[in-house]
Amino acid sequence: MIRQAKGKTPRRPPPKKTSNNQKDPVGVYCRARPLGADDEECCIEVISNTTIQLHAPDGLKANRNGEFKETQYSFKKVFGIKTTQRELFEDVAKPLVEDLIHCKNGLLFTYGVTGSGKTHTMTGSPGLGGLLPRSLDMIFNSIGPYQAKRYVFKPDDKNGMEVQNQVDALLDRQKRDSQSTVPKTPTTRRIDPEFADMISPEDACRADGVDEDSSYSVFVSYIEIYNNYIYDLLEETPFDPIKPKPPQSKILREDQNHNMYVAGCTEVEVKSTEEAFEVFWRGQKKRRIANTQLNRESSRSHSVFIVKLAQAPLDADGDNVLQDKNQVNVSQLCLVDLAGSERTSRTRAEGSRLREAGNINQSLMTLRTCIEVLRENQMCGTNKMVPYRDSKVTHLFKNYFDGEGKVRMVVCVNPKADDYEETLLVMRFAEMTQEVEVARPVDRPICGFTAGRRQRNQAFKDELTRRLEERGGPVDGEFPTILNQLLQSFPPLPTCELSGPNDDVTLPRLIEALEKRHRVRQMMIEEYNKTANMLKSVLQEQDGNIVSKENFIHEQRGKLGEKDKMIQNQKNEIDRLEKKSKMLEYKIDILQKTTNIYEEDKRSLQHELESREQRLQREMSEKRRMESRMQGIVTDAKLKWEKECERRVNAKQLEMQNKLWVKDEKLKQLKAIVTEGKTENRQPQRPSREKDKVPPKRSASPSPAPSPYNGSQSSLSSLEPIYNFSQMVRPDPHFLRQGSVSVASCISEWEQGVPQSRRQGSQSPPDSRKRAQGLPDSLSRRRGRCWAREVPVQPADVDLEETDHWTAPPVRPLHRRSHSAGGERWVDHKPTSNVDLDTVLQLNLPNAIKVNAPNEKALSKCDKYVLTHQELASDGEIQTKLIKGEVFRTRGGGQAVQFTDIETLKQENPVVASSRKRRSSESGQDGEPMEGDWTDVETRCSVALEMRAGSNLGPGYQHHGYTKRRKP
Ligand code: ADP
Ligand code: MG
Question: What is the pTM (predicted TM-score) of this model?
């Protein structure tokens, strides 16, 4: 409506686009030409018949990133240098020609760098016809016998085709014959030797399925697009040698079917390959001449050779082309030799040349852009505008990409290194082009006439000729027989000879006879008409039947087509499902594998869990065993300690009894003194077992027998007056083990015997350890203890760690008394409140006077005084201090004591001590003595004899060291 409003011819609605929405990708083929010279560097390699590889030439090997470059490109087919023109034609152009004959459009173009073989591929070289002559040859081979007479089809200047009536066609033919100098029939024509060898009839191909009931005509046009101008290469312009006119450019128009065409372009009807190629050659020549005249480079122009095939059905008689424009089908094949794909830099162009090159590039660039946009629209579903109009080439081909048809491209490659970079760009574009899809053209419906009309018509004509020849051929000047027979069936004519001017018999008789004949003729005509009408009606009836049958067939064909489509769809669906099922199978496979891995994991984890459980079980049972063992040990120890306590209580009781007895004795003596003045010194009776075991009285002045220490430690000789080791009795281990001896007796035994053990230990410490093991537990488990003296003098510098305590007890010569020990008498003051600590270190003073409270009498007899004082230390242990002093006589005759020294006995908790000390003793578990046994501090302390410098007192307190016993 809008168009009408604009005053334009209303157009036919555009043909329904693709009733089937099948599409085919642009078929891209690659052809490599041989190198110009054998020693040239080659930068391509045909990998397979679909893949080609480009190697960067030596000079270019490292690209900007410094990496080696090899690129592969895949195409529908790759043709190596050995590919023949025929092979290429079979693969590339043949299907397009077949399509053309079946009313389908096609576009074939060659693309590549200048010199890559585009023209060689499209047109061919001498002796090697290219795709163009071969296509023409195939067309004429196929439609040869079915071509319409010249001028039956006539282009209408609007890209359409009309059918002329016989007379007009005949007149046109006569006109052409009169103008043309060329001989009438092509067979008799001489072919131009310039291109004769490019047409090779022996290679002739033929398309199948040519409709015999149609008439065909081929029209060719040849244009050149240069600098974005279109020139008609077939236009006949009167040549003016004085002022040659520059060629007029043509414009593009859109026909009523929205197809683009070059308005006013010459379309030459051709009837044979030779004629067609001759026309092409003429155009080619013109192009060459124009380019030379105008100083243009032909490689910069696009040449487009269009082959149009018009076909229309024969009429019902099969005699003439049906005079119906709507029944004319026109298909076209465009053969395009594109300009060389060069960058401006390579063309070495300047000024207007540069602009030309730019334009050439521009049109190729537009082609690339169009292809890219098309591809994007198709792949991404976008609807971007494709810039076809930006250049004439793309604008002309718009319908091929927008509408339907088959598009094929041959990419030509020159393997030489110089072209490498441009070839790379060409390849990229070509590879991308393959992703563009073009709608597949549909089959045209056939017209409603009976098939085989041409054959029938031909057969009828043949038969008629034969019969005419048989019956009434003008043999010997006679009439044809059929005419004779017909004449014989009429009433014979009377003799027509007039006897005289007054003969009025002959003429009326002749008139009568002629009238008779006329009547017969009338009758015969009537008869004939009757029969003819009858025959006509029968024929019409038959025709109607045939038409209805044809319609039925057509209908059935339509249905068949639908069914075919359905089958195709279902096939596609099946394909899709098969693909899907394959994918799913693959997925299942992967999942199966994953499951297996997980199961494996699970098994190993379970295994680990089991082993851990077993270990736990084992550890638990171990723990239980340990618990029961510890419980056993605890009850054992408890029992032992209970027994020990009982024993101690008993011993204490006995001791107390002893003390009581001693006191009683004293009391009795005192009583006796009081009552009798002087009585006999009676030996008191000790109660119970102690009776036999009175410790031997020590001599006040022990004999200076040589000590075993003398040899090794001379300083020990100073101790001899007090510690007469040789006289000391070592406690009998056997006896001690009895357990029946009282603690008191033990102590008294110890007072005399312990130094012996110490001496033994000095000779063989491990021995003494062994012996010590024989001691009652109560003793051996006694806490570790040590003596310390508090003297207001500088501290002792004896290094306990360094000294061998057994061979060199740290006794200072300072403590030696100048006089003999026997010369000193001590007052041993022990307050009654003191507790007997049952310690190993005990105050042992021979000839001392023991008192509970100091008295003058005792003091007057002695010159030394010692007080055993007990107090509670800060750690809760009882601490015993020996406070020593010297006795002076006062001027008044009394006694005074001056304290000079304090010695302290400190006890330590063995548990705490043992945790601090080194556990070296445990290394000798099998009873073997080890050096380490003597290295721990406790052991050393327990055997150390410490005396501080500055003490002027007598012997200190001896530490009766026992090595500790191992824990049970
Ligand atoms: P273009 O048209 O691409 O510029 P041409 O077709 O003119 O290139 O080829 C340049 C030259 O290379 C011509 O002489 C041609 O004969 C030769 N040539 C091209 N392709 C081949 C081929 N496949 N085999 C042999 N010669 C070839
Ligand atoms: Mg060329």
Answer: 0.52
